[in-house]
Structures are given as structure tokens and as C-alpha cells.
Write a structure and sequence with these properties.
Strand order of the largest sheet: 1-2
Number of strands: 4
Largest sheet: 2 strands, antiparallel
Structural class: mainly alpha
Helix content: 40-55%
Low-confidence stretches: 1-12, 204-209
Strand content: under 5%
Number of helices: 10
Radius of gyration: 17 Å
Shape: globular
């Protein structure tokens, strides 16, 4: 597979087509401000707001980050308020200090493990950062959409939970992609795009969930 579905349903091409940021610090910010139940478009708008304010640096001020995150966001013409601005500002300031003052590993699993001590970054978010930044197919992003799709397809045991079974879920997901001869990063992106968009169509939510 040489294409991946973007959040707006378009197709992107290239070795790093999943990237949201221009460097690792920006990728960490984009993924940290998204996820955790945050609508994708809202997280992306928040990321663009803090990036445009010039705050994604090693000396990012937590209060300035919070000020920007408390400012209403324009999301597809709607005014949206970002949830938990104080918490996310605190997490992001600490993450930027960590990422910008050390030399990160360059291999997928080492980079993911290096990110895990950062508050607010668990295996899913770390895998998301690594997948995007390195264009890696060696990690998986086991979010609710992938978990449900894998369970529906009979790939995952319904009893498995990301909080305790993440390595097992990741291994089975990567094997699933290999069996289908598709890139793991692209399989993840397509599942996320299809199921996330289907959940927003009236009458299809129940089928997706």
C-alpha cells in the first residue's frame, strides 16, 4: 500500500505521509494535544495554535501555553473550547523540556521507550509519535478504533485490554498487517479514518461501536 487516509479523507503519499509536525518536538506536541479522548480536529487545531504562537521550544512557558489553549479555537468554522488546558499545558511544557534538551534515539522501539517516562505519554501516544515521525511499521497505535476493528475481525481476544495487554495487541496487529501484506502504519491509518468518520454518520454509530 502506498497511500494513507488523512483526517479529512484525502490521500497522502510519501515516506512520512503520517507526520503532523516538522520535527520531533512538534510531533510530540501534536500527539500530546490530541488523543486521550480529544476529537482529532480539536487536537490538531490546538497544535497549530501553539505552534503559530512560537511556543514549541525547550523553554516553553506553561502559562503561555495554557493561555493559548484557553483561547477558543476555530474548527471547520465552529468555535470550540479545548478541554483540560491547564493539564495539557503542564504536560506539554514538561515534554518539550525533555525532548529539546536530550538526544533522542533514532530506532522505533528505542524512541518509543525513551518517550514513555514523559507524563501524559503512554504506549499508544508514544507509538503514534514514532509512527508519524519515523514513518515506522514496527509499532502500533492501539486506540479504541483499532481495538474494536481487530476484535471484530477476530484478530484480538475480546478480553484483551490495552492497559495490561498492549504488547500482545501490538504483536497481533503487526502480524495482521503482515498477513495482509500492507504497511502497519497504513492499516492503522485506514482503520482509524474509516471508523472515526463512520461513527459521525447518523445511524452508523451503533454499527461501529
Amino acid at each position: 500500500m502506498t497511500e494513507a487516509a488523512a483526517a479529512d479523507g484525502t490521500l497522502r503519499r510519501g515516506p512520512h505521509r503520517h507526520r503532523l509536525g516538522r520535527n520531533l518536538a512538534e510531533e510530540v506536541a501534536a500527539c500530546l494535544l490530541g488523543g486521550h479522548g480529544m476529537p482529532y480536529e480539536t487536537g490538531l487545531a490546538a497544535f497549530h495554535a501553539v505552534r503559530d504562537a512560537g511556543l514549541l521550544t525547550r523553554g516553553a512557558d506553561e502559562s503561555e501555553l495554557e493561555r493559548v489553549l484557553r483561547t477558543p479555537l476555530d474548527v471547520s468554522g465552529r468555535t470550540v473550547h479545548y478541554r483540560f488546558p491547564a493539564q495539557r499545558a503542564r504536560w506539554l511544557a514538561a515534554a518539550l523540556r525533555y525532548v529539546c534538551t536530550q538526544r533522542p534515539p533514532t530506532t522505533s522501539h528505542e524512541l518509543r521507550d525513551w518517550l514513555l517516562p514523559v507524563v501524559g505519554i503512554g504506549p499508544k501516544t508514544a507509538g503514534w509519535i514514532v509512527r508519524n515521525h519515523l514513518g515506522s511499521d514496527d509499532v502500533a497505535i492501539i486506540d479504541v478504533h483499532v481495538l474494536r476493528a481487530g476484535t471484530d475481525a477476530g484478530v484480538f481476544d475480546p478480553a484483551w485490554r490495552p492497559t495490561v495487554d498492549y504488547p500482545r495487541l501490538e504483536a497481533f496487529f503487526l502480524a495482521w498487517a503482515g498477513q495482509g501484506r500492507v504497511r502497519a502504519a497504513d492499516l492503522d491509518a485506514v482503520i482509524w479514518s474509516e471508523r472515526a468518520h463512520a461513527a459521525r454518520i447518523p445511524g452508523r454509530r451503533a454499527a461501529v461501536e
